[in-house]
Design brief:
Length: 342
């Protein structure tokens, strides 16, 4: 066991304050430290140390300001090229009282670089190796959906200095790529259903603002792309979150907690609770009503980030969303993003 204190032999003229000042402490801090380490009969209560022979002093005392600075230094403070690893595995679970739970697994491949001319970052993003409930999707609609997304990947996003998506690097490239590769899809996926799906997919990706919002409103993107400022916050604050894709963001009060249980990593936990007056029906339908909610939705979101203390790299990200009405859970969504490929 590491000993973090030693005995100091009191000299003539020593006081609690004079000894404490040499250690960077206050007299009150030294008194509390000594009394917490000594025998009951050896406790001190006064500034004068008459008849006191020894005082327990810390070997590595840190002021509250020093502790706060260490906390800040161990956490990401600015977005950089090294924040993300090259690959992550993702596990998502959807639960609803109306349907059986669904679990989806896939991998993410990334390439993050700084655009020196424009000053922002470009994130190249692609998804692979989809599995649903442990199996590779073999139904026509699911496989077509995956095939359509694969044709336009990797997608390149513009990220600002806080790590937030501000747009596509080249939206025209996305639409042109799908147009060029659609013929190959049509040769394999035939029939009216497939044609209608591809028509709908092409319309969606052609609307730049709509397509970007579709992606940003997923729990994956909300979790995987945290605002770097979050890690340095201490007080409560309000943040909007999407509880369902393609809905609207509901204002949540956020409380932050940080744990440094591992030597090389820090766990940052954000606990959010809906404070906006909106109903579950509004969130599920994605439409705000003009009237105030008589029975507002109850919703919670928890985001957890494990980051490396030295290189500030994102090691793992988790999130859970729970939406309920009158204490009955109507929607749950969990995601676990772990560094490394399968």
């Amino acid at each position: 066991m590491e000993i973090d204190f030693l005995q100091y032999k009191v000299r003539n003229g020593d006081t609690l304050t004079s000894i404490a000042s040499r250690l960077g402490m206050t007299g009150e801090e030294l008194k509390l430290f000594h009394n917490s380490h000594c025998e009951k009969m050896d406790k001190v209560w006064f500034e004068s140390l008459n008849d006191v022979k020894n005082i327990f002093v810390p070997t590595n005392f840190k002021t509250e300001a020093q502790k706060e600075q260490e906390r800040k230094n161990s956490l990401p403070s600015q977005f950089s090229d090294t924040f993300f690893a090259k690959s992550y595995t993702v596990n998502e679970t959807f639960e609803s009282p109306f349907e059986s739970p669904v679990t989806i697994d896939y991998t993410i491949e990334l390439d993050l670089r700084k655009d020196r001319n424009k000053g922002h970052h470009i994130l190249s993003y692609s998804q692979n190796d989809f599995k649903s409930n442990g199996n590779t999707p073999d139904d026509k609609v699911s496989s077509l959906s995956i095939a359509c997304m694969k044709t336009i990947m990797p997608i390149e996003f513009i990220l600002n200095d806080k790590g937030q998506i501000t747009g596509f690097a080249d939206h025209k490239k996305i639409t042109d790529t799908f147009t060029q590769q659609r013929k190959e899809l049509e040769d394999f996926y035939v029939g009216e259903v497939a044609q209608n799906y591809m028509d709908s997919f092409e319309r969606n990706i052609s609307d730049e603002a709509y397509f970007l919002q579709q992606l940003k409103s997923t729990l994956l993107f909300q979790t995987f792309l945290p605002t770097i400022d979050w890690f340095q916050k201490k007080a409560k604050w309000t943040e909007p979150f999407y509880f369902l894709q393609n809905s609207f963001p509901a204002a949540c009060e956020i409380n932050l907690e940080q744990k440094n249980e591992e030597k090389d990593s820090v766990l940052t936990i954000l606990n959010g609770k809906i404070t906006e007056l909106c109903t579950p029906q509004e969130i599920m339908r994605g439409i705000r009503l003009t009237e105030s909610a008589a029975e507002p939705a109850s919703g919670n979101i928890v985001l957890e980030y494990t980051t490396h203390t030295k290189n500030k790299n994102l090691l793992q990200a988790k999130a859970s969303v729970l939406l309920s009405h009158e204490e009955v859970v109507i929607h749950q969504h969990h995601i676990n993003i772990t560094q490394g490929s399968i």
